[in-house]
Structure formats: structure tokens, C-alpha cells
């Protein structure tokens, strides 16, 4: 009986020792567990532009078609294709022989009409005193006065015909309608041209400055204006930047000149026109481009680095901040667009919040963290002293 009691007591002591060892081992990980270090930035409110990207096509600032005003054969072309021409500069010479002869004839008719008018006027002048003294009948004087007026009208007609012949003679030299760069000539020397032909002889375009016609959906335009009003955006000077077809950005910025007051019924779009400087002639008419149009400025927003924002399975945007007691806090925010490499947050953050940007993989909502300024190097764990006995063994 005594042996049985001793065996029972030794079993109880062994069980108690085992329990104490397990308790000390379970406390060991908690003692070695460290609070994770996270990097944070203090956010502040700012203003960002509200931009929209739209397609567009370049159009010349001014364009003039070189057209003949008279018919005839082209004798000479007086310009080099692709060069700058000045307004009024001679571009083509049309055969002027017929128009020169017509001008001579008109001049002769004018001279003849002048002579007849002088004679009729002198006759009417002589008949007047004779009619007063009844040396000639009153009818003779009336006929002489009417002949003088008819001759004066004939002079006016022949003078107009002579001016027309002079104008036609001048039109045999075809001038540039505007100052600009002239394109290829559609007619060569020896070609017959007419005053009412469909095709122009050439086209002159003014390319500096140059227009960009932008197409924007009327629905998008109304939605954008509504968002600007709701989001507190303010009007801007509406600068426009240009992206070329190869993806590069045009170095000079433009300005928005006007927007059409009506919507195109076939496409449902509104045409916006921007003007760009083009001193080097890089932009050519008809070029397809992408434009970035500043629609205004949005105040009281927070810029969040893209790596610091994530989305839950429902698509809601969330960030981690350092909350009370240095505990990580998951916070929902409103972020509908980006600005450069950052999200534009319009709700959910305020100035002074500590946004966690580093160590997000170690932070857990509601758990303590050790916040340090962003980009602070993390201190390594202190190495254990060699030969140190574990806590369980010391016991």
C-alpha cells in the first residue's frame, strides 16, 4: 500500500513538471515576438488639375485654294512646291494674248465713245441759244441734248468694258491668296485651265499657328461638368497638351479657343478647337493626335502612392493608417482616378493622417505597429548571446 502511494506521488510530480515546461515553452514565442516596423508619410491636402484625354486632328490655321479667274493655257509655274509663299505673290502665268487683244479693243471703243460724246455735247451746246431765238426748232435741240446724254452713257459702258479687260488681263497672273506653305501643283505648264473648274491649281496653308479640332462626346462633357461642380473644381485657363501618333509629347502647349454651341446630330459629339504654335512645321494638317485637356482644378484632395492603396473583393479602395495607440487601422477611401503615379483620394483621408506606405505586408488591422518615417531603414534584431540557456532550461 505504501509502495502504491509513493508511485502515485511520483507520477503527480512528473505531470506537474511537464506542465510547467509546456507553459514556459508557450510563453517563449510571445516573449520573442516583436512589433512590426512600418514606414509612414503624413498626408496633406492639395489641388490637382482635372484632365481628360480626347482624340483630335490637326487643321491649318488658314487655307487658300489657288484658282484661275480666267480660262487659258498655263505658260509658266512661278514657285517651288513646298515653299513659303507670300500673299499676292505670282504663282502661275496664263497665256495672255487673247486678253491683251481684248484690252486693246476695249481701249479703242472707249476712245471712240469719248470722241462721239464730245461731238454730241458740243452740238447740244450750240443748239441751245439757237432754240431760244427760234433759229432752230425746239425738237432739234431736244434731239441734240438726248444724243449728248446717250454718248455720255456709251462712254461709261466702254469704260466699264475696258476695266473688265484690264482685270482679266491681271488675272492671267495667278497670285497666292494667303501667306503660307504651298503644296504640290495639280497642273503643269501647258495645261488648259478654266475659270469655273472644280479642282484648284494648288493649295496654300498657314501652319504656324495650327489648329487641333477635338471631338468630345456631349454626354461626357455634361458628366464632366457635373463632377466638377460636385467635386468643388474651379475653372482653369484650359491649357492643352498634345501627344503625337508615335506616343511622344509635343513640346509646346496650346490653348482652347472655343467650343461649338451645337451638338453634331450624326455623331453626338461637340467640336472643341485648340490652337498650338508650330514654328518648326512639325504638325501637318490632317495628323491624328491625342490631346490632354485641363478642365479645371480640384481642391482639398490627397495624393496617395499607388502602392499604398489596395482594393477589396468588392472593388472598394482601402489604405492603412497609423491609428490611436500606434495600431494599424484599415480605412476605406474614395479614389476614382489617378494623377501621374498617385491616386487622387477625395474622401476618407484628412490632413495630418499617417499613411502607411512601407511594411504593409506585416501590418494587420487592429494590431500594434512601430511607425517610423518613410524610407527609414529597419533595425535588425539583436543576435542572441552564445551559450545562453533557454528560459525553460533555466527553470
UniProtKB/TrEMBL annotation:
<comment type="similarity">
    <text>Belongs to the membrane fusion protein (MFP) (TC 8.A.1) family.</text>
</comment>
<dbReference type="InterPro" id="IPR058625">
    <property type="entry name" value="MdtA-like_BSH"/>
</dbReference>
<feature type="domain" description="Multidrug resistance protein MdtA-like beta-barrel">
    <location>
        <begin position="209"/>
        <end position="296"/>
    </location>
</feature>
<feature type="domain" description="Multidrug resistance protein MdtA-like C-terminal permuted SH3">
    <location>
        <begin position="301"/>
        <end position="361"/>
    </location>
</feature>
<feature type="domain" description="Multidrug resistance protein MdtA-like barrel-sandwich hybrid">
    <location>
        <begin position="65"/>
        <end position="204"/>
    </location>
</feature>
<dbReference type="GO" id="GO:0005886">
    <property type="term" value="C:plasma membrane"/>
</dbReference>
<dbReference type="Pfam" id="PF25967">
    <property type="entry name" value="RND-MFP_C"/>
</dbReference>
<dbReference type="InterPro" id="IPR058626">
    <property type="entry name" value="MdtA-like_b-barrel"/>
</dbReference>
<feature type="signal peptide">
    <location>
        <begin position="1"/>
        <end position="19"/>
    </location>
</feature>
<dbReference type="InterPro" id="IPR006143">
    <property type="entry name" value="RND_pump_MFP"/>
</dbReference>
<dbReference type="Pfam" id="PF25944">
    <property type="entry name" value="Beta-barrel_RND"/>
</dbReference>
<dbReference type="Pfam" id="PF25917">
    <property type="entry name" value="BSH_RND"/>
</dbReference>
<feature type="domain" description="Multidrug resistance protein MdtA-like alpha-helical hairpin">
    <location>
        <begin position="103"/>
        <end position="172"/>
    </location>
</feature>
<dbReference type="GO" id="GO:0046677">
    <property type="term" value="P:response to antibiotic"/>
</dbReference>
<dbReference type="InterPro" id="IPR058624">
    <property type="entry name" value="MdtA-like_HH"/>
</dbReference>
<protein>
    <submittedName>
        <fullName>Efflux RND transporter periplasmic adaptor subunit</fullName>
    </submittedName>
</protein>
<feature type="region of interest" description="Disordered">
    <location>
        <begin position="357"/>
        <end position="395"/>
    </location>
</feature>
<dbReference type="InterPro" id="IPR058627">
    <property type="entry name" value="MdtA-like_C"/>
</dbReference>
<keyword id="KW-0732">Signal</keyword>
<dbReference type="GO" id="GO:0022857">
    <property type="term" value="F:transmembrane transporter activity"/>
</dbReference>
<dbReference type="Pfam" id="PF25876">
    <property type="entry name" value="HH_MFP_RND"/>
</dbReference>
<feature type="compositionally biased region" description="Low complexity">
    <location>
        <begin position="384"/>
        <end position="395"/>
    </location>
</feature>
Amino acid at each position: 500500500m505504501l509502495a502504491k502511494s509513493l508511485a502515485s506521488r511520483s507520477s503527480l510530480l512528473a505531470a506537474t513538471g511537464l506542465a510547467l515546461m509546456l507553459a514556459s515553452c508557450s510563453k517563449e514565442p510571445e516573449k520573442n515576438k516583436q512589433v512590426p516596423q512600418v514606414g509612414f508619410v503624413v498626408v496633406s491636402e492639395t489641388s490637382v488639375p482635372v484632365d481628360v484625354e480626347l482624340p483630335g486632328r490637326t487643321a491649318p490655321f488658314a487655307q487658300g485654294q489657288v484658282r484661275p479667274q480666267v480660262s487659258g493655257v498655263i505658260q509658266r509655274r512661278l514657285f517651288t512646291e513646298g515653299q513659303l509663299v507670300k500673299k499676292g505673290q505670282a504663282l502661275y502665268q496664263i497665256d495672255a494674248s487673247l486678253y491683251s487683244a481684248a484690252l486693246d479693243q476695249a481701249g479703242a471703243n472707249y476712245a471712240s465713245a469719248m470722241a462721239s460724246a464730245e461731238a454730241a455735247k458740243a452740238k447740244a451746246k450750240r443748239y441751245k441759244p439757237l432754240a431760244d431765238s427760234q433759229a432752230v426748232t425746239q425738237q432739234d435741240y431736244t434731239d441734240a441734248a438726248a444724243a449728248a446724254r446717250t454718248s455720255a452713257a456709251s462712254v461709261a459702258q466702254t469704260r466699264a468694258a475696258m476695266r473688265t479687260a484690264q482685270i482679266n488681263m491681271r488675272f492671267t497672273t495667278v497670285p497666292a491668296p494667303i501667306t503660307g506653305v504651298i503644296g504640290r501643283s495639280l497642273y503643269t505648264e501647258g495645261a488648259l485651265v478654266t475659270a469655273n473648274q472644280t479642282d484648284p491649281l494648288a493649295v496654300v496653308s498657314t501652319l504656324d499657328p495650327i489648329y487641333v479640332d477635338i471631338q468630345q462626346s456631349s454626354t461626357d462633357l455634361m458628366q464632366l461638368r457635373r463632377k466638377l461642380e460636385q467635386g468643388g473644381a474651379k475653372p482653369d485657363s484650359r491649357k492643352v497638351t498634345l501627344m503625337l501618333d508615335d506616343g511622344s509629347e509635343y513640346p509646346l502647349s496650346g490653348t482652347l479657343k472655343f467650343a461649338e454651341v451645337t451638338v453634331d446630330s450624326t455623331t453626338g459629339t461637340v467640336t472643341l478647337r485648340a490652337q498650338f504654335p508650330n514654328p518648326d512645321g512639325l504638325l501637318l494638317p490632317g495628323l491624328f493626335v491625342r490631346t490632354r485637356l485641363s478642365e479645371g482644378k480640384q481642391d482639398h484632395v490627397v495624393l496617395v502612392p499607388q502602392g499604398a492603396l489596395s482594393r477589396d473583393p468588392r472593388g472598394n479602395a482601402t489604405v492603412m493608417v497609423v491609428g490611436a495607440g500606434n495600431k494599424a487601422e484599415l480605412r476605406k477611401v474614395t479614389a476614382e482616378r489617378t494623377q501621374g503615379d498617385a491616386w487622387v483620394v477625395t474622401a476618407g483621408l484628412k490632413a495630418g493622417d499617417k499613411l502607411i506606405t512601407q511594411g504593409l505586408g506585416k501590418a494587420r488591422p487592429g494590431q500594434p505597429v512601430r511607425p517610423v518615417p518613410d524610407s527609414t531603414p529597419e533595425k535588425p534584431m539583436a543576435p542572441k548571446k552564445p551559450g545562453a540557456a533557454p528560459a525553460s532550461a533555466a527553470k
